[in-house]
From TrEMBL:
Gene3D superfamilies associated with the record: 3.40.50.11320, 6.10.250.940, alpha/beta hydrolase
GO molecular function, one term: serine-type carboxypeptidase activity
Domain of life: Eukaryota
Name of the protein described by the UniProt record: Carboxypeptidase
Signal sequence annotation: 1-24
Listed EC numbers: 3.4.16.-
InterPro entries named in the record: AB_hydrolase_fold, Peptidase_S10, Ser_caboxypep_his_AS, Ser_caboxypep_ser_AS
Cellular compartments annotated: Secreted
Keywords for the protein's UniProt record, in alphabetical order: Carboxypeptidase, Disulfide bond, Glycoprotein, Hydrolase, Protease, Secreted, Signal
Similarity comment text for this entry: Belongs to the peptidase S10 family.
GO biological process, one term: proteolysis
Length: 494
């Protein structure tokens, strides 16, 4: 076994021993569980084959959407403060035969909605809710109070600059469902991309005013797979039809899983460099743990145990953030700040499982036998997971799409070191060297721009879910991305 491949497998081996105890939210746990399954010797997940677009029968693509838009209009959510923007939510069927339908939430831009672009947001997992995380804890117009009953405004919502669409996918995530239970055993990267495409073309039929609008796709974590794979699928079908079916203009991915090898090695380098694991333990991993052997040495086991103890009591997804100490709801809402409460996942769970909330959202129309969960408990298997999406990023650059990759710099799970290692694999010439970028009068992060229109940016003091921890900086980032202008450096700031 060559040294590079051995080191790569070793990292996943060690990770599989550690992840069951790492503190963090359910989205992070889902990613850890995938990696445990993916690199187990008996794994049934296909991670070696290249991603291929699933071809679709022409008669199965579009379904009638007549009259459904107005039925999806949200009058007002329970406990919602007054706002003047339009909200919609409901289901789009992606497979009539199987009875597979995806739930969406859509909020139009606060101003100039007729000319603002359409932004599709996807969360990762796999198996986690873009509504429960993206909309309700990160970049949507509201966040849930600690009473689990009322909402408060998010002044840094991304609908300040775009019309924002949140999608729960694949089937079994959040309110999205299938009438065929076998669907929960066949989800994977390929099927998710195909279904996301079917959702999008049908949603555009329901909202025809957005058919020719500029579309950008964004997401975080395992959406580092979802976003490029959907973008690739869109380009494939546009080319096949010799016309623009969907007017895709670019992608934006954050703390994203994009290349297994570098994602893993970058994680341990980050932990050692941030004084979370010792240099001695990091060295011992490489020296004492031989993945090519079935025999785990006492030295290897000692290194693993030491690292486990180091990670036991922190949130790996924001290494400096407090963890949730009390999951109980409060009788009255606690005082809120701009940074998401570490217990907010519990507030969202309580709110979205209220019957009056589900009725207002036109959700759970089939009376599902399980609760809404931030990450799915009903998806039984993930059948394929590509080892890399880097070839797609090259494809997008060749097709003149805008590609931005951002990274919260205190995420220890898919840290900036992983992302830098992955981008370096692309061997792109540097156009603008590494430098600080500014927002609201201070350094918001650092940025490097590459030939071909790829930007790599950090967001200072942000964890895995960047808009939760640094909402103002995240809003500045998305504004410049959508405008197609460089992040402001020292001269522009001055």
């Amino acid at each position: 076994m060559d040294r590079e491949n051995s080191s790569f497998l070793l990292s996943f081996f060690i990770l599989s021993l550690l992840v069951t105890e790492i503190h963090g939210n359910r989205q992070g746990e889902a990613l850890n569980n995938l990696h445990k399954s993916k690199f187990r010797a008996s794994s049934q997940i296909d991670h070696k084959s290249e991603f291929e677009v699933q071809e679709l029968a022409d008669d199965s693509i579009l379904h009638s959407q007549k009259g459904l838009k107005e039925k999806d209009r949200i009058v007002r959510l329970p406990g919602q403060p007054l706002v003047s923007v339009s909200q919609y939510a409901g289901y789009v069927t992606v497979d009539n035969f199987a009875g597979r339908a995806f739930f969406y939430y859509f909020v139009e831009a606060k101003h100039s909605k007729e000319t603002r672009p359409l932004l599709l947001w996807l969360n990762g997992g796999p198996g986690c809710s873009s509504f429960g995380y993206g909309a309700m804890q990160e970049l949507g117009p509201f966040r849930v109070n600690s009473d689990g009953k009322t909402l408060y405004k998010n002044n840094y919502s991304w609908n300040n600059v775009a019309n924002v669409l949140f999608l729960e996918s694949p089937a079994g995530v959040g309110f999205s469902y299938s009438n065929s239970s076998s669907d929960y055993k066949t989800n994977g990267d390929k099927k998710t991309a195909a279904d996301n495409y079917l959702f999008l073309v049908n949603w555009l039929e329901r909202f025809p005013e957005y058919k020719n609008r500029d579309l950008y796709i964004a997401g975080e974590s395992y959406a580092g797979h979802y976003v490029p794979q959907l973008a690739h699928t869109i380009l494939h079908h546009n080319k096949k039809a010799t016309k623009t079916i969907i007017n895709l203009k670019g992608i934006l991915i954050g703390n994203a899983v994009i290349n297994d090898e570098t994602d893993s090695t970058g994680m341990y380098d980050y932990l050692a460099s941030h004084a979370i694991i010792s240099d001695k333990a990091a060295y011992a991993l490489n020296k004492a743990c031989d993945i090519s052997s079935d025999n785990i040495t006492s030295e290897c086991e000692a290194a693993v145990n030491e690292i486990q103890k180091d990670l036991d009591y922190i949130d790996l997804y924001n290494i400096y953030a407090p963890t949730c100490k009390n999951t109980d709801l409060t009788a009255l809402p606690k005082k809120t700040g701009i940074v998401t409460d570490p217990c907010s996942e519990n507030y969202v769970y309580a709110y979205l499982n209220r019957r009056d909330v589900q009725e207002a959202l036109h959700a759970n129309v089939t009376s599902l036998k399980y609760d809404w969960e931030p990450c799915s408990n009903v998806i039984e298997k993930w059948v394929d997971s590509s080892s890399t999406v880097l070839p797609f990023l090259h494809e997008f650059l060749k097709n003149s799409l805008r590609v931005w990759i951002f990274s919260g710099d205190v995420d220890g799970r898919v840290p900036i070191t992983s992302t830098k290692y992955s981008v370096n694999k692309m061997k792109l010439p540097i156009k603008t060297v590494w430098h600080p970028w500014f927002a609201h009068g201070e350094v918001a992060g650092y940025v490097e721009v590459y030939e071909g229109n790829l930007t790599l940016a950090t967001v200072r003091d942000a964890g895995h879910q960047v808009p939760s921890y640094q909402p103002a900086r995240a809003l500045s980032l998305i504004k410049y991305f959508l405008d197609g202008t460089p992040l402001p450096g020292p001269r522009r700031h001055a």
